[in-house]
Amino acid sequence: MQDFEGKTAVITGSGSGMGLAFAECFGREGMNVVMADIEEKALRVGAARVEALGASVLPVVTDVSDESSMDHLGEATREAFGNAHLICLNAGVAAPTGPMETLTTND
Predict the structure, then answer these.
(1) Domains in the chain and their CATH numbers?
(2) For a FRET experiment, which of 11, 52, 90, 103 has its CA 20 to 30 Å from that of 96?
(3) Residue 107: pLDDT band by 50, 70, 90 thresholds?
């Protein structure tokens, strides 16, 4: 993708750390930023920082280990901005490891 302006990025684990840094970077590039994190307070604070850069931000409290929560994240993204153009699955979750194609939803 060469032009980021007006495109939509979804970042999990974006309430702090690398996820927040990604959100800030994408926001500075003119992207709509969907920020997802399980920690509501950190998400609110992080979203305010990204909005201060002039980005359109949608904070969504999300538990990436819960399928329905992830479904809600997708629905909220599409409702607010249409399709996502960049997805950054940054949230750190300890789970079984192995090749992605061998993992199940329960993993």
Answers:
(1) 8-92 (3.40.50.720)
(2) 11
(3) low
Please provide residue 8's backbone torsions phi and psi, each rounded to the nearest 5 degrees.
Answer: -120, 130
Chain segment 1-31, per-residue pLDDT in tens: 788 999 999 999 999 999 999 999 999 999 9
| CA–CA gap between residue 31 and residue 101 (Å, rounded) | 30
Copy the structure tokens of residue 21: 């840094």
Q: State phi, psi for 9 to the nearest 5 degrees.
A: -115, 140
